[in-house]
């Protein structure tokens, strides 16, 4: 997270660290005691049994509890070139025990929209682009939801953004998700609006962060998880 603040997992109890071979690779969000949502690009090519999630910890490398991922369900329309439908659902080996440091995030309704300018909370253990800001402990930033047309124009050279994407960030840049935050939560009033997906650089002026729009695939989530 660039331009953010240090956070405690108790304040973001839905945040998890997705790990491969005991190293943090991506963020994720707790949907229920058995399911976590992350980005498809975080799980593509992962062998079963090589991934786990660390829950209930403000640190990606210690504390809390590591729970193995039993299997993952990537969105069938995920396109690694355009990064469209960048969603993956992780089914856990054993159910999570909820408490102060672990709670599910709420899901939006299918196609539910968020007003432009709404304050959204993004969090993770990704790059801070600042040597004084450690990424060992969870960080978070508040970013406004971007207008879709504005974002589409900003990324015209990259093929624009699809209806399965939602953008957030200040026009002047400065606050954003970054490498290592992928798959993590973008939340509005306790509802999971987006999944950290892609963008040009991090916190660059004129290039908001691009997130997978959870409301666009709400019915798919229900079909796969019964949630």
Automatic annotation (TrEMBL):
<dbReference type="InterPro" id="IPR001314">
    <property type="entry name" value="Peptidase_S1A"/>
</dbReference>
<dbReference type="InterPro" id="IPR018114">
    <property type="entry name" value="TRYPSIN_HIS"/>
</dbReference>
<keyword id="KW-0732">Signal</keyword>
<dbReference type="GO" id="GO:0004252">
    <property type="term" value="F:serine-type endopeptidase activity"/>
</dbReference>
<keyword id="KW-0720">Serine protease</keyword>
<feature type="domain" description="Peptidase S1">
    <location>
        <begin position="1"/>
        <end position="226"/>
    </location>
</feature>
<keyword id="KW-0645">Protease</keyword>
<dbReference type="InterPro" id="IPR043504">
    <property type="entry name" value="Peptidase_S1_PA_chymotrypsin"/>
</dbReference>
<dbReference type="Pfam" id="PF00089">
    <property type="entry name" value="Trypsin"/>
</dbReference>
<comment type="similarity">
    <text>Belongs to the peptidase S1 family. CLIP subfamily.</text>
</comment>
<keyword id="KW-0222">Digestion</keyword>
<dbReference type="GO" id="GO:0007586">
    <property type="term" value="P:digestion"/>
</dbReference>
<dbReference type="InterPro" id="IPR009003">
    <property type="entry name" value="Peptidase_S1_PA"/>
</dbReference>
<dbReference type="GO" id="GO:0005576">
    <property type="term" value="C:extracellular region"/>
</dbReference>
<dbReference type="InterPro" id="IPR050430">
    <property type="entry name" value="Peptidase_S1"/>
</dbReference>
<keyword id="KW-0865">Zymogen</keyword>
<dbReference type="InterPro" id="IPR033116">
    <property type="entry name" value="TRYPSIN_SER"/>
</dbReference>
<keyword id="KW-0378">Hydrolase</keyword>
<keyword id="KW-0964">Secreted</keyword>
<keyword id="KW-1015">Disulfide bond</keyword>
<protein>
    <recommendedName>
        <fullName>trypsin</fullName>
        <ecNumber>3.4.21.4</ecNumber>
    </recommendedName>
</protein>
<dbReference type="GO" id="GO:0006508">
    <property type="term" value="P:proteolysis"/>
</dbReference>
<dbReference type="InterPro" id="IPR001254">
    <property type="entry name" value="Trypsin_dom"/>
</dbReference>
């Amino acid at each position: 997270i660039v331009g953010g603040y240090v956070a405690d997992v108790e304040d973001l109890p839905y945040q998890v660290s997705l790990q491969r071979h005991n190293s943090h690779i991506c963020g994720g969000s707790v949907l229920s005691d058995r399911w976590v949502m992350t980005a498809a690009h975080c799980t593509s090519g992962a062998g079963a049994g090589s991934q786990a999630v660390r829950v209930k910890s403000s640190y990606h490398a210690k504390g809390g509890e590591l729970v193995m991922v039993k299997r993952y369900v990537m969105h069938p329309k995920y396109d690694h070139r355009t990064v469209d439908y960048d969603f993956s659902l992780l089914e856990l080996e054993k159910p999570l025990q909820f408490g102060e440091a672990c709670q599910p995030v709420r899901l939006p309704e299918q196609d539910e929209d968020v007003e432009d300018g709404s304050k959204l909370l993004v969090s993770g253990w990704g790059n801070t682009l600042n040597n004084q800001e450690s990424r060992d402990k969870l960080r978070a930033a508040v970013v406004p939801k971007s207008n879709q047309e504005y974002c589409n124009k900003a990324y015209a050279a990259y093929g624009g953004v699809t209806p399965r994407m939602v953008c957030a960030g200040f026009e002047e840049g400065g606050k954003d998700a970054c490498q290592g935050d992928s798959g993590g939560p973008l939340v509005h009033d306790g509802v999971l609006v987006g999944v950290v997906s892609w963008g040009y650089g991090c916190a660059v002026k004129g290039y908001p962060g691009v997130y997978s729009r959870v409301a666009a695939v709400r019915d798919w989530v229900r079909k796969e998880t019964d949630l």
